[in-house]
Amino acid sequence: MEPVDVLIIGAGASGAAVAWSLAETRMRILCLEQGDWVRQSEFPSHGRDWEERQYGDFSISPNRRGLPADYPIQEDDSPIKVANYNAVGGGTILYAAHFPRMHPSDFQVRTLDGVADDWPISYQTLEPYFELNDRMMGVASLAGDPAYPPKAAILPPLSMGKTGRLFGRAMNQLGWHWWPADAAIATQAYEGRAPCIHLGHCIAGCSQGAKASTDITYWPEALRQRVALRTRCRVREICTNKDGRATGVIYYDELGKEQFQAAEVVIMACNGIGTPRLLLNSTSSRFPHGLANSSGLVGKRLMFHPYALARGYFDEPLDGYRGSHIVAWSQEFYETDRSRDFVRGFTWQFGRGQGPVQTAMSGMAWGKIPWGEDHHAAFRRIFDRSAGMLAICEDLPELHNRVELDPVLKDAHGIPAPRIHYRLSENSKRMMAFAQTKAEEILVTAGARDIATESPLSYAGWHLMGTARMGKDPEESVVNPWGRAHDVKNLFIVDASVFVTSGGVNPTATIQAIALYIADQIKQRLTHLFDD
Amino acid sequence: MKTVSPFAIVSLSPLTSADTQSGLSAEEVGLLRQVAGLMIPQSEAFGVPGADDPLIFADLLASLGRDLPAIREALSLIKQAQQSDAAALAAMLTSTRPDLCASLVSVITRCYYRDNRVMKSIGMAVRAPYPEGFSIEPNDLTLLDPVKARGRRYRLVADE
Question: Is-contact A154 A134, C-beta < 8 A?
Answer without folding.
Answer: yes
